[in-house]
């Protein structure tokens, strides 16, 4: 029988939080510009629809520009790659791109099953860490989702100088959990980035991108089982 799972490492974007509605993102960016007293850029209906679709796949576009995820090693690189990725779409003015970046974190909404699943894991004595490839601080988003107090810690690529799938960043997460790899489960959405812990004996669950407010995180509870005691 495999060892029981005493710790879970969760990816952040696309796993615990949804990327949000691109239409709302665009609206929030325009409100941000208006609040700052900036001139409103023109965005015709066809341009808006194209931008909406582009934003729904923005990190796929970013990966083509930055396949080694170097954007996730510093805030400056993160913003630069985002800017270049949005600029692949014609007719998007620089002020609007900057505003989209400024309000981006506001768009990240926790899936409906995020808080209940993490609460249930905690009630079973399972330790939790969030591990994210990202070039900005997401702790405010975790606070907004109500999960911060349930975590042993947060590992962010730009803070530790490592990006998934490097096994070394998973080793950081295991240190925070204080749980061995063979008693840990990694939960993510990327078959490229979220499997780097396998070499450390971390079991891995990939939940593909979903539409709607529920992401299927209850699968984690079934894998952990009812008794997570050592």
The CATH architecture of the largest domain is 3-Layer(aba) Sandwich
Number of continuous helical runs: 11
Distance between the termini: 14 Å
Main β sheet profile: 5 strands, parallel
**What low-confidence regions span 5 or more consecutive residues with pLDDT below 50?**
none
What's the gyration radius in Å? 19 Å
Topology:
Blueprint: E1 7-10, E2 17-18, H1 22-35, H2 45-56, H3 58-65, H4 75-87, H5 94-102, H6 104-107, E3 109-110, H7 114-123, E4 127-132, H8 139-145, E5 153-156, H9 157-160, H10 167-177, E6 184-188, E7 203-206, H11 218-224
Helix pairs in contact: 1-5, 3-4, 4-5
Folded structure, characterized:
Strand 4, helix 8 (139-145) and strand 5 (153-156) form a beta-alpha-beta unit. The strands form two sheets. The chain has a five-stranded parallel β-sheet with strand order 5-4-1-6-7, with helices on both faces. The protein has a two-stranded antiparallel sheet with strand order 2-3. It contains eleven helices and seven strands. It is of the alpha/beta class. The protein is elongated, with a radius of gyration of 19 Å. It has two domains: 7-18 and 108-224, Rossmann fold (3-Layer(aba) Sandwich), CATH 3.40.50.1000; 22-107, no CATH class. Helix 1 packs across helix 5 (94-102), helix 3 (58-65) packs across helix 4 and helix 4 (75-87) crosses helix 5. It starts with 6 loop residues before the first strand and ends in a 6-residue tail after the last helix.
Summarize the structure.
With 230 residues, the protein is of the alpha/beta class.
